């Protein structure tokens, strides 16, 4: 499952007056030169406890539309990239799974200084009916866009899953821009080292090396592939990990020299229990662990599927788990779930 829809975030307290809340934490998260009050991202156990699904609006008072999202933090600004889900949902015929689709709407971009107030920066990567660029046709699939910055080339590089409506192509696409907000120029698509690639994410390490992580071998096995120095192509250095585990929706992060990978099971649009793995290097070896989610709803990842983990404060080992809640019959109405968590002696739990 690798689809995402109209922007309704499951963090209703971000939209209410501050006196409305009993804030459980008062520390300030320091991120570069940006200060973010933890009251905006804490009290995860209180999220949606009354079933509130308040929409997160941009500064133009429109609902944010960014699914399968990833976040780039660059020069004091957060950039949120995601799939644009708009239009009627339809079922691709003659498939063995519930292959629901909307037209490929391209990739949206929003910017924020505090993760609360989001400005719509427009369409970062556009799609078109009958596009001369095959991968950018609205009749196809564009999923899980992620963007990283290359300090050597001073380019912003986007990778995403590109496919036909039947999931037959199973490729990764790459695009590049001089600006974080775009527009991005599509470079091409590839099966890394000849292997199929579906749900994917990017990870940029402290040494500047970047890795492409993707579900491969008909989703049976995850691959981790080192990218070229310019981030525009896969190298031949890759590893097969989580072999025969049937995992998708990868989200990688790093803490105290160790690498963590959260994934989802392959159950179509239906939610399932997340799992995580830990490695000493992005290329492994990786040790498998169980579900990081705890509490009521943990068995379905709180009715959501992982898409990204955003570092909030490296000194305090604080992160933001980002996930999608799919509405397979109306993908434009799908929602989001963001939950902050803190590492504790190499362990972490995600709780609502």
Can you describe this structure?
- With 352 residues, the protein is an all-beta fold.
- It has a single domain (6-351), classed as Glycosyl hydrolase domain, family 43 (Tachylectin-2, Chain A, 5 Propeller).
- The chain is built from no helices and 27 strands.
- The chain has a four-stranded antiparallel sheet with strand order 5-6-9-10, with no helix packed on it. It has a four-stranded antiparallel sheet with strand order 11-12-13-14, with no helix packed on it.
Task: Chart the SSEs and their pairings.
Layout: E1 6-7, E2 28-31, E3 34-37, E4 64-65, E5 67-74, E6 77-85, E7 90-91, E8 100-101, E9 104-112, E10 119-125, E11 141-150, E12 155-163, E13 171-177, E14 185-190, E15 200-204, E16 210-216, E17 221-227, E18 234-241, E19 247-255, E20 258-265, E21 275-279, E22 286-288, E23 293-294, E24 305-313, E25 318-325, E26 335-342, E27 350-351
Parallel strand pairs: 23-27
Antiparallel strand pairs: 1-4, 2-3, 5-6, 6-9, 7-8, 9-10, 11-12, 12-13, 13-14, 15-16, 16-17, 17-18, 19-20, 20-21, 21-22, 24-25, 25-26
Strand order of the largest sheet: 5-6-9-10
Oligomeric organization of the protein chains:
single chain
- Helical fraction equals under 10%
Number of domains: 1
Classified by CATH, the class is Mainly Beta
Shape: globular
Straight-line N-to-C gap: 23 Å
Radius of gyration: 19 Å
Number of helices: 0
Q: Outline the biggest β-sheet.
A: 4 strands, antiparallel
Count all strands and give the number: 27
- The overall pLDDT average reads 87
Low-confidence stretches: 2-35, 42-53
Structural class computed from helices and strand pairing: mainly beta
CATH homologous superfamily (4th level) name: Glycosyl hydrolase domain, family 43
- CATH architecture assignment name: 5 Propeller
Proportion of strand residues: over 45%
The helix/strand order is EEEEEEEEEEEEEEEEEEEEEEEEEEE
- CATH fold type: Tachylectin-2, Chain A
């Amino acid at each position: 499952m690798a689809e995402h829809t109209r922007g309704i975030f499951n963090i209703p307290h971000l939209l209410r007056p501050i006196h409305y809340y009993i804030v459980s934490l008062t520390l300030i998260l320091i991120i570069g030169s940006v200060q973010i009050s933890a009251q905006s991202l804490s009290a995860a156990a209180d999220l949606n406890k009354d079933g509130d699904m308040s929409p997160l609006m941009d500064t133009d008072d429109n609902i944010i539309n960014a699914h399968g999202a990833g976040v780039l933090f660059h020069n004091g600004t957060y950039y949120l990239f995601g799939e644009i889900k708009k239009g009627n949902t339809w079922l691709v015929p003659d498939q063995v799974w519930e292959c629901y689709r909307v037209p490929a709407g391209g990739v949206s971009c929003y910017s924020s200084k505090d993760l609360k107030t989001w400005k719509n920066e427009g369409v970062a990567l556009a799609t078109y009916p009958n596009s001369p660029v095959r991968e950018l046709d609205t009749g196809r699939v564009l999923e899980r866009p992620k963007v990283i910055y290359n300090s050597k080339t001073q380019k912003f590089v986007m990778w995403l899953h590109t496919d036909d409506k039947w999931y037959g192509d199973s490729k990764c696409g790459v695009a590049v821009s001089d600006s974080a907000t775009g527009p991005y120029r599509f470079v091409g698509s590839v099966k890394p080292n000849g292997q199929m690639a579906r749900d994917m994410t990017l990870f940029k390490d402290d040494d500047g090396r970047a890795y492409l992580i993707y579900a491969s071998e008909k989703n049976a096995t995850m691959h981790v592939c080192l990218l070229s120095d310019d981030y525009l192509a896969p190298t031949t250095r890759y590893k097969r990990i989580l072999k025969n585990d049937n995992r998708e929706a990868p989200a990688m992060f790093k803490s105290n020299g160790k690498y963590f990978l959260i994934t989802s099971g392959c159950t179509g649009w239906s939610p399932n229990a997340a799992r995580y793995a830990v490695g000493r290097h992005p290329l492994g070896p990786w040790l498998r662990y169980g579900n990081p989610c705890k509490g009521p709803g943990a068995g379905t990842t709180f009715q959501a599927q992982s898409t990204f983990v955003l570092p909030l404060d490296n000194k305090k080992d604080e992160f933001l788990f980002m996930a999608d809640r799919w509405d397979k019959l109306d993908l434009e109405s799908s929602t989001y779930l963001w939950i902050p968590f803190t590492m504790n002696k190499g362990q972490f739990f995600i709780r609502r």
